[in-house]
Amino acid sequence: MHILGINVYHGDVSAVLIRDGQLIAALEEERFRRVKHYAGFPSIAIRRCLEIGGIEGKDIDAIAVSRNPRANLLRKAAFVLGHRPGRALMRDRLHNLRKLRDFRVPLAEALSVRLEELPKIHYVEHHPAHLASAFFVSPFDEAAVCVLDGFGDFVSTSLAIGRDHRLKILDKICFPHSLGMLYSAVTQHLGFLSYGDEFKVMGLAPYGKPYFVDAIRRMVRLKDGGLFDLDLKYFRHWSAGVEMEWEDGYPSLGKVFSPELEHLLGPARPPEEPLSERHEDIARSLQAVYETCAFHVLNALWQRTKSPRLCLAGGCAMNSVANGKVRTHTPFKEIYVQPAASDNGTALGAAYFVWHQSLGNPRTFVMDHAFWGTSYENSNLEPFLSRNGHKDEFKVLRLGDSDETCRVTARLLAEGNVIGWFQGRMEWGARALGNRSILADPRRADMRELINTKIKFREKFRPFAPSILEEAIQDYFVDAAAEPFMQQVYPIRQDKRHLLPAITHVDGTGRLQTVNSNQNPLYYRLIQEFEKLTGVPVLLNTSFNENEPIVDTPAQALDCFLRTKMDGIAAGDTLILRNSNDVGHHAKALSKAYHVATVEHS
After folding, report:
1. Which runs of E-coded beta strand occur in 102-253?
2. For labeling, which of 60, 369, 471, 583 is most exposed (least CB within 10 Å)?
3. Is the pLDDT of residue 230 over 80?
4. pLDDT above 50 for 597
5. Is the preceding peptide bond at 176 cis, omega within 30 degrees of 0?
6. What pLDDT, on the 0 to 100 scale, is given for residue 598?
7. How much is the pLDDT for 412?
8. Coil, strand, or helix at residue 190?
9. CB neighbours of 336 closer than 8 A, spacing ≥ 6?
10. Separation of alpha carbons 548 and 38, rounded Å
């Protein structure tokens, strides 16, 4: 049985394909449209899922959509009657619902079937889809499950217990109260106005002091049972017309904070204004208050379930700093956060909700790696170089096999070069995890600034993540658990921080990615080769992109390489190096040492 799961007319639209309970493909539309957080309809992602699965649209047996317009109708009606929201707010909601009703037409086009040939469509409420995405692909037979996000189908927070192939919701918090909205409001106040900018505030927070904690605490009231309310005078998402755009392009969210927030925290920062200590202090205070609130919810969930295992989902589950503290601030002993925990993951959850909760099938699948995207067998980049008219700028090395590729690349990295690493199937989720990555030596103190200013072209305060051999995590991190999806931050051991300055954040932490030979054997071998040369089983890993979605195709990878100052790119077993620096001059020595062919490009 084939089930297609889709997230539509929301941020981060996506599609997944499962066959008899096994995941076949999971794709985000942004990778193909080249628009971050693409909102609209995932037509290309759907077609690529079919291609990867080797099937046609007529072979799909069920469609699972991670929205349900009929969910929580009584709560919605009570809110409208009690709060009298503005006409603009109601107009935006009704427009989005109309688009959702009309999605059968683009769905039929994407599947290349007639409207009357569409299979049964299951409407899965947003939060149950999140819950399913967290639990049903986890390694746990039983676990507490929590969703924290902005809003979806009128709900912001869900508490549940998962057992075998069933989920039971224990409690939920509805619009207009939301920890995601709390974080978004202060993020906007700090001048980060783009959709999804909350992660920047998380990266900025360690630079500040928690001087605004008492002020930000006034924005939210904690209640018994893990519940909470926002003080709505600081917000306008519930009353005024907050502009939202979820159609065919970059999603947008208008200003959600009210003038009262500026009375509380001071004037909002214009985006062009330099960051000050006050902004850093506000960021630190926001993170501290968010963690207090999140652990309040999670501790209450543990009291109700007494489970030692926790699955997390929702946009707030991308707060890797808080995730890394769960085991020290709650009784939970194990935590699972799948790589697309945000709204992209609701397509995954909708499909598995139908397979398990609706159809009653037993669980047979665990997501222990993130490589569910596209792949390209022929990654020969020479034709793209010729097409772009480059002459005498590069050397192309044909490496004999993957072992040789790892040895040569590891040596280049150990000598201080920055290498784009394009291999295998693309990652599912927001993180590059070793197949669409830019890699560097974490021992170089200047490497973070170099990559931020010359390659990523982004804020200097943003950290980079370490990829480490799984067996070495206790040697380098404090109380860390295996984390293949880069979803948790842990302290780096004091005696190791001087060895890893490029990936050690200002507070002495790193956003951990563990790598083992089963999940990604090629990337594992590369880190092993780097360890042989340096004694350090760690690489600096950042996503293969430059202010754009992570690259999908070899051509996109080469284009990113050409417009930045990366030293080389390894695509499959082909290595391209610049002639304009020592890397190019080193190419002949490498080819001689490893007996590979060097192709002069002209």
Report:
1. 120-123, 142-152, 155-163, 166-174, 220-222, 228-230, 244-245, 252-253
2. 471
3. yes
4. no
5. yes
6. 47
7. 98
8. coil
9. 134, 138, 139, 140, 143, 309, 310, 311, 312
10. 11
- Per-residue confidence (pLDDT) for residue 458, from 0 to 100: 87
DSSP secondary structure string for all residues of 370-383: ---S---S----HH
Report helix angle 402-414 to 582-594, nearest 10: 140
For residue range 93-116, list pLDDT tens digits in order: 555 566 667 899 999 999 999 999
Ramachandran region of residue 196, left (φ > 0), alpha (ψ -120 to 50) or beta? left
Contact by Cβ (8 Å): 159, 171? yes
Tell how far CA 558 is from the center of its chain. Answer: 23
- Per-residue pLDDT of 28-86, as tens digits, reads 999 999 999 999 999 999 999 999 999 999 999 999 999 998 887 777 777 767 666 65
Which of these, 13, 22, 8, 7, lies nearest to 52 by C-alpha position?
22
Checking phi first, is residue 576 left (phi over 0); if not, alpha (psi -120 to 50) or beta? beta
Cβ atoms of 527 and 539 closer than 8 Å: yes
Q: What is the pLDDT of residues 184-217, one digit of tens each?
A: 999 999 999 999 999 999 999 999 999 999 999 9
| Alpha carbon distances (Å) from 317 to 322, 342, 469 | 8, 7, 24
Between strands 509-515 and 465-469, the pairing is parallel
Question: CA 171, CA 144: separation in Å to the nearest integer?
Answer: 12
Query: Residue 388's pLDDT band (boundaries 50, 70, 90)?
Result: low
* Residue whose tokens read 């919701």: 169
Q: Is 62 helix (H, G, I), strand (E, B) or coil?
A: strand
H or E segment to which residue 335 belongs: strand 334-336
SS (H, E, C) 378-433: CCCCHHHHHHCCCCCCEEEEECCCHHHHHHHHHHHHHCCCCEEEECCCCCCCCCCC
Strands 419-422 vs 509-515: parallel, antiparallel or unpaired = unpaired
Query: Distance (Å, rounded) from C-alpha 600 to C-alpha 312?
Result: 51
Quick one: pLDDT at residue 600? 43
Domains contained in the chain, CATH given: 2-135+341-358 (3.30.420.40), 172-336 (3.30.420.40), 382-600 (3.90.870.20)
